Amino acid sequence: MPSSVMPTSKESGSTTAVSALGLRKSYGDKTVLDGIDLRIPTGSVFALLGPNGAGKTTAVKILSTLIGADDGQAQVAGHDLATDPQAVRAAIGVTGQFSAVDGLITGEENMLLMADLHHLSRSEGRRVAAELLERFDLTQAAKKPASTYSGGMKRRLDIAMTLVGSPRIIFLDEPTTGLDPRARHNMWQIIRELVSGGTTVFLTTQYLDEADELADRIAVLNEARIVAEGTPEELKRLIPGGHVRLRFTDPAAYRSAASALGEAAHDDDALTLQLPSDGSQRELRSILDWLDAAGVEADELTLHTPDLDDVFFALTGDTDQPHQPKESAR
After folding, report:
1. Rounded-to-integer distance, Cα 137 and Cα 157, Å
2. 189, 229, 286, 309 — which has fewest CB within 10 A?
3. Are 205 and 228 in contact (CB under 8 A)?
């Protein structure tokens, strides 16, 4: 993986946690990554979305030095993957969808084992382990075998073990797979707390609501290439179909509005009008201003916007799963 054209850490700046240019990876005649580029700011959550087999886990394995790329360059925490992999490993933590927790020993023993691997002294290891077990609400279960833990507890312990080395960047590969809704929300709060403390999180997930909830920026990976990247709101604006629906209970008010808004779609039975809209504040304000100026009062204004489900299915061509647009009443 040559590094001659990759920017140095000074050039890329301390505000960039992960940068990659033209990463490629194939297994036999199957191309898994076909020249992907990434630039992830420090202290942010970056989510990589894609169908099963799209290459998400492969990207994580390359950036965390577990496997090598066939071509391309990358820097993680200012260190080149090809020339300084040890420095990369010292700066990162990796938690996969399959827990690294040893169920035969206690939660505390798992933590102390990780402290030994990071060459902490016995006293320092015990201090760090105790602090992290308390932070992740595992103190009461610390002396119990990890095999007795629930799925959410094991996942919390897994992340706590990852934090023993104080990594600046954490790769979370589908961290909430198999968790119940409460455990998923608890994990989301943990991720928010990590980022508020300055940690950068690289998240892969199949849950679109998870990416929408957590990510500052999202990239969609499909057929080995990144087909779109942006903030959640930027990605939603890529997909047409947003509209505003005005509902009336007064037939006279409905007829007045329908007459003035000739371009609106009419539903005479439901007394509703539908106008195309990108959901911007300026556009909504103009509709409200028009209603006020015309002396027409709608009983309900509802904004329908494309969600990440719509974006994902449109970009990946996967329309098998049902999805509904989000609505917000005004």
Report:
1. 9
2. 189
3. no
CB-based contacts of 30, cutoff 8 Å, min separation 6: none
SS (H, E, C) 47-98: EEECCCCCCHHHHHHHHCCCCCCCEEEEEECCEECCCCHHHHHHHEEEECCC
Rounded distance between C-alpha atoms, residue 8 and residue 78, angstroms:
7
DSSP-H helix ranges across the chain: 9-12, 56-63, 85-91, 107-117, 122-135, 151-162, 181-196, 208-214, 232-236, 251-260, 281-294, 308-316
pLDDT, one tens digit per residue, over 152-198 is: 899 899 999 999 989 999 999 888 888 888 888 988 999 999 999 99
Distance CA 169, CA 161 (A): 14
CA pair distance 310, 322, nearest whole angstrom? 10
Q: Tens digit of pLDDT for each residue in 198-216?
A: 999 999 988 899 999 999 9
Measured CA to CA, the distance from residue 148 to residue 146 in angstroms comes to 5
Rounded to whole angstroms, the Cα distance separating 330 from 326 reads 13
Structure tokens at 291: 């209603």
pLDDT of residue 72: 96
Contact 295, 267 (CB under 8 A): no
Non-local (6+) Cβ contacts of 260 within 8 A are 290, 294, 296
The per-residue pLDDT for 321 is 43
